[in-house]
């Protein structure tokens, strides 16, 4: 395999920095979708309907992600990982800044939610190309036996981005009154993300191409239409990869968006208290990522992911008993446990999905699997969970998680022969 001028530190910082920025942008929208947008971008006559409409715009980005995966995956497999990663960052970043500058429903009426949806689509488009490229940047520069460890660095961008976004909203809530926060405070993190975009570009523009792609290019192994090749020759890995990531998305968006909404409304937790509890839980999410990656490099990705899936299933059975009104400390334990399990499945996930596909179509295949799982597992998760909780109680939210985890377990079992292990 050819070598490049990329140092280990540069590769890992570039893969981590980019996904941190992307997830920061994505999470500030998720938080605002619960706390801000129902009040400012939709008719206020029916708060419940406004919340559901806000969740609908939240879901829109997940339907944009496969478009981004196909678009950026095409160029990532055709012309290289580096240029495509820069382009994905420049797609999502300006969309986020634009959301922070939008006038509200009170100012321009129905045009406000329409523009919000358009820029939300832009966020999803960029993230659809970002994740796969960041994972390949790390794994295709990894030494033998360290592929999952390298592949977990982009995954760490998720908890870091969440910590930055939640910490920003907590800080603003502490310094600003509710009126000032709704008037202009919520806009600050969206607009300030422009600074993070500049940092991400600086790091990525200094990279050289990955050795794996250079080998593909030197042997003229690029395919004309990677997406067509994926569907024609790699349909089974695509289906299995999508289902492998399904429980991951359901669990994460239940533990973040749904719990924030339900906890601050039905369970009457103060917004600040619940955000603090989530931040503690995210620390356990961050802890679970390197731990599971290290275990996966030692024992194999398939065994680790199978055992974590069993643990998530058991957590789903206890969901309704653990998440209820009462002592704040119990809620912290609930969130910490769920998000630690999320880290357990998320750490090896990037490397697992990438290794299901050969290098000439790896960017497209891994990105498309991940984003299709996002549609099935995350786009409607807050909506479905809210409906189930209102109709039949929180136990059924847990059963929803159990159903998704069962599909993931079956897919992991079926995909064992496709996983390129050991690293």
TrEMBL record:
Pfam families given in the database record: MFS_1
Main subcellular localisation: membrane
Membrane-traversing stretches: 12-38, 50-72, 149-172, 184-203, 238-262, 274-292, 304-322, 328-349, 361-385, 397-415
GO MF, one annotated term: transmembrane transporter activity
Family matches, as InterPro entries: MFS, MFS_dom, MFS_trans_sf
Membrane topology of this protein: Multi-pass membrane protein
Domain Major facilitator superfamily (MFS) profile, chain residue ranges per copy: 11-420
Keyword field contains Amino-acid biosynthesis: no
Keywords: Cell membrane, Membrane, Transmembrane, Transmembrane helix, Transport
GO CC field: plasma membrane
Subcellular location: Cell membrane
Protein's UniProt name: Inner membrane metabolite transport protein YhjE
């Amino acid at each position: 395999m050819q070598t490049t001028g990329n140092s280990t530190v540069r590769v890992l910082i570039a893969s981590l920095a980019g996904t941190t920025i992307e997830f920061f942008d994505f999470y500030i929208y998720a938080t605002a979708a619960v706390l801000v947008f129902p009040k400012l971008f939709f008719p206020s006559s029916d708060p419940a309907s406004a919340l559901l409409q806000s969740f609908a715009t939240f879901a829109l980005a997940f339907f944009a992600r496969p478009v981004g995966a196909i678009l950026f995956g095409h160029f990532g497999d055709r012309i290289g990982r580096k240029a495509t990663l820069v382009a994905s960052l420049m797609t999502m970043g300006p969309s986020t800044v634009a959301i922070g500058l939008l006038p509200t429903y009170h100012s321009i009426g129905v045009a406000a939610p329409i523009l919000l949806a358009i820029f939300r689509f832009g966020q999803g488009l960029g993230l659809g190309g970002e994740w796969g490229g960041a994972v390949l940047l790390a794994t295709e520069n990894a030494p033998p036996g360290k592929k999952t460890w390298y592949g977990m660095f982009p995954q760490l961008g998720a908890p870091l981005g969440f910590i930055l976004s939640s910490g920003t909203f907590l800080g603003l809530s502490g310094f600003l009154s509710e009126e000032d926060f709704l008037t202009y405070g919520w806009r600050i993190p969206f607009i300030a993300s422009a600074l993070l975009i500049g940092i991400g570009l600086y790091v990525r523009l200094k990279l050289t191409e990955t050795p794996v792609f250079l080998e593909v290019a030197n042997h003229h192994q690029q395919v004309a239409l990677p997406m067509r090749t994926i569907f024609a020759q790699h349909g089974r890995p695509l289906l299995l990869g999508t289902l492998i990531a399904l429980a991951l998305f359901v669990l994460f968006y239940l533990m973040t968006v749904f719990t924030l909404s339900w906890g601050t409304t039905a369970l009457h937790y103060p917004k600040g208290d619940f955000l603090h509890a989530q931040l503690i839980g995210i620390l356990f999410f961050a802890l679970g990522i390197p731990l599971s990656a290290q275990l996966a490099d030692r024992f194999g990705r398939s065994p680790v992911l199978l055992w974590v899936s069993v643990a998530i299933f058991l957590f789903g059975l206890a969901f309704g008993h653990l998440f209820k009104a009462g002592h704040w400390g119990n809620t912290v334990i609930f969130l910490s446990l769920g998000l630690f399990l999320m880290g357990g499945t998320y750490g090896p996930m990037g490397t697992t999905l990438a290794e299901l596909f050969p290098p000439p179509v790896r960017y497209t295949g891994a990105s498309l699997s991940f984003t299709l799982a996002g549609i099935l597992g995350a786009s409607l998760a807050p909506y479905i969970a809210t409906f189930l909780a209102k109709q039949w109680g929180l136990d059924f939210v847990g059963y929803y998680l159990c159903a998704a985890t069962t599909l993931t377990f079956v897919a992991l079992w079926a995909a064992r022969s496709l996983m390129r292990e050991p690293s």
